[in-house]
Amino acid sequence: MLDPISLTAVSAVLGAVGSGMANEAGKWAWESTGGFVRRIAGREVPAPTAPGELDAVARMVSDGLRQDPRLASSWAAFASGVGGAGRGPAGAVPRAGQPGLPASTRFFTDRKEGLKSLDREASRRADGTPRLALVHGAEGMGTSALAVHWGVRQAGLFPDGQLYADLAGTAAAARGTGTVIRALLRQLGVPDEEMPTSADRLSEFFRLCVADLRLLIVLDHVYSAAQIRPLLTSAPAVFTIVVARNPFPGLDAVRVPVGPLTDKDAVRLLTRLVDKPAIAAARATLPSVLARCGGSPYALRAAAPRLTAPVSGTPAGGDPVRAAAQDTYGSLEPGTAKLYRLLAVREWPALDAAVAARVTGTTAEDAERRLDELADGLLLERNTTTHALPRYHYRPAVRVHAEAAAVQEEGIAACSAALARALRWYVDLSTSLAHQVLPESWRVPAPSGARGTPAFESRGDALDALVAESGNLVQAVHCAEESGDPASAVRLCRSLWPLQLKAGRHETLLPALRAGARLAEAHLPGSADAGALHAQLAHTLTELRLWDEAEAEALAAARAEESAGHKRGQASATEFLGLLRLRQWRFQEAYECFEAADAVLITMRADDEGAADVPRARALLERHRGRALRGLGRFEESRDRLDTALGHFRAGGDTYNTARTLTDLAETWLDESDVAAARPLIEAAMTTLSGQSAEYHVAYLRSMRERCTAGERDSG
Predict the structure, then answer these.
(1) Sign of torsion over alpha carbons 608, 610, 614, 617
(2) Which domains occur in the chain, in start order?
(3) Over the stretch 654-701, which tens digit does the pLDDT of each residue have?
(4) Which alpha helices (H) appear in 282-411, and where do they start and end?
(5) What would the pLDDT profile of 297-317 be if each residue is shown by its tens digit?
(6) pLDDT band at 355 (very low <50, low <70, confident <90, very high)
(7) What is the DSSP letter of 19?
(8) Per-residue pLDDT reduced to its tens digit, 221-233
(9) C-beta of residue 507 within 8 angstroms of C-beta of residue 501
(10) Which whole number is the average pLDDT over 421-445?
(11) Is the pLDDT score of 19 beyond 90?
């Protein structure tokens, strides 16, 4: 058995706790570790943020424990219970969920060499290098179809699942690596609460999760090796297929080129699509159709309904996808053509009938019919989603065609007006959804009351809808910035608060929050809006362990709120800074921040914004001060603060914060090895949480109870 105070064991505990901060239990474990380190060192030790710093702290802890048997015993009990705290209740590598590949195409033609290349790489003897293939070819040539078709055909090789992620294909639209890893982990069935927060640890966690799985991973529309390098693994039974338009340097992969279909295979595909009599009837026009389609499966599918219609030569610029879009566009009825044009003036990730109706001034029912018509004609792609409403997106080359048609036929002014209507819709939608998720929060802007925004029966359903719109809302913030509309950007960003607080989509939201804070500082300096956006950005940066940036934003938030005379916001920003200090193990500074925040709250008048929330806010600050005092080793003072907070939460029926405060109190007694005092508090917290789906908190409480049992054995 490994000595629990050895350097190796201590390093493992610090690494495990540091990697598991996404859930409440992981944050507790990290904070508790900081308190232990301070007592062992006899001084405040900043939380390690780099491997070298972690090694230095581990060495200091191991040496200190050898000199203090009492602390060594407490550390051993603590360390034995934290293994699952950072990983969630299971504490094990998750099992794969349902296959994540999109549906394969029905009529798949040719590509025998490509399929054989993938077969060979998938069956190659494991030698420590990643099983990796790069499928590349021009847009519309069927690169994605080849990867998906092969995966569906070889599903038996991957009993643990087949994962799929669309990485967007261009640097401007690409999804962040952290966002992609989280999406893949969700397909594996890993809850967000069990995922590490920082990008480097997230990548390591992903590799750990897939290490023993027989798994296919398809990464579609990749534009660079750097974009996917953190996702690559040398796990022996994992096969990764990368799909890109062009081969790029820096990726040691088997290259699988996908070129144009030969005329023979093109005719074979058309025959499968429309049958032999239709091909015979199109004998006169078939050569020109084949020339215009240029061997592109997409273009051939788009051309199939119009084989007998005359076409004019090869496409301009040699782009069969754009030529196919032009041909199909010419057959649309005017209303559908207008919708096709106007929705393309911005690259929205997930179009639906609601935004289409707002942009074109029609009804949602009419817009849905037209969207479906465009999808049937291959001018839009149907999104692979579990959301209740159908959603769509453009192929890149098709959107370029549609946008050019909009500029030419509608004019710049009409395009700008359409974009403004879409932006207005996303502002209306986001404020409505955010208010439904957190109606009591002063941080969430008041809804505009616009007609057509959906109403949900529960907060959870509204949050799900907000999550589904998150990509569009981030795009809308950038749209507002580029359009010179800072007011809309601010309202959109403030509506993202429930996604930060309740859904933890921090990587996804970070670019929008940066833009929002930048715009607010430029156009609304010293305002409550600027303070709110700096505070929101500070919160997300803290969760992503970007602590230096978080500190600067929290300080900027406090300055702006103070300048605006917005006391509730000033106190909240100062509280954020204190919570950051707790994460950094800077407990004295954390305590001073909480004191300063409370000093602001007690000066608030009854008519100040957020005044109704002051009693609860002050109780939370009491709890936070108790946590900081615990980190400082001032246990009796800590319990006094925590008892005061507990009384408020119990009186108000706040079971969530009651259970958290009971846990804090139990921790202070365990820090002093008083298991008799800690155990009833642990049991009370577990009783309070009964039936509340707080599995991570309960798992942590169980680990604390095990520490009590171990302590009782040792004392006996």
Answers:
(1) negative
(2) 7-82 (no CATH), 112-257 (3.40.50.300), 263-329 (no CATH), 334-410 (1.10.10.10)
(3) 998 999 999 999 999 999 889 999 999 999 999 999 887 778 888 889
(4) 286-293, 297-303, 320-329, 334-342, 353-360, 364-376, 396-410
(5) 999 999 998 887 776 656 556
(6) very high
(7) T
(8) 998 898 899 999 9
(9) no
(10) 95
(11) no
For residue 13, the SS3 value is helix
Give the rounded distance of the alpha carbon of 426 from its chain centre: 19
Reported confidence tier of residue 84, pLDDT bands at 50, 70, 90: very low
What confidence score (pLDDT) does residue 90 get? 42
What's the whole-number mean pLDDT along residues 473-488?
96
Burial class (CB in 10 A: 0-12, 13-18, 19+), 428: buried
For 331-365, give one letter per residue: b (16+ CB within 10 A) or e: ebeeebbbbbbbbbbbbbbbbbbbbbbbbbebebe
Find out whether 625 and 595 touch, Cβ atoms under 8 Å: yes
How is residue 128 annotated by DSSP?
S
Question: Could you give the CA distance from residue 367 to residue 343 in angstroms, rounded to a whole number?
Answer: 11
Tokens of 346: 């911005």
- Token digits of residue 546: 């970007």
Helices 486-495 and 506-523 sit at what angle, rounded to 10 degrees? 140
Which residues touch 261 (CB under 8 Å, ≥6 apart)?
Answer: 109, 110, 269, 295, 296, 297, 300
Least confident of 36-50, 141-155, 457-471: 36-50
Q: How would you classify the pairing of strands 392-393 and 381-382?
A: antiparallel
Mean pLDDT of 24-29: 80
- Are 476 and 423 spatial neighbours (Cβ–Cβ below 8 Å)? yes
Spatial contact of 671 and 635, defined as CB atoms under 8 Å apart: yes
* Structure tokens, 637: 């003072």
Half-sphere exposure of residue 234, counting CA atoms within 13 Å on the CB side?
A: 5
Which of 13, 588, 140, 98 lies closest to 400, judged by CA?
A: 140
**Could you identify the residue written with the tokens 């494991």?**
126
What is the rounded distance in angstroms from the CA atom of residue 112 to the CA atom of residue 120? 12
| Segment (H or E) for 132 | strand 131-136
C-alpha 11/C-alpha 554 separation (Å) is 31
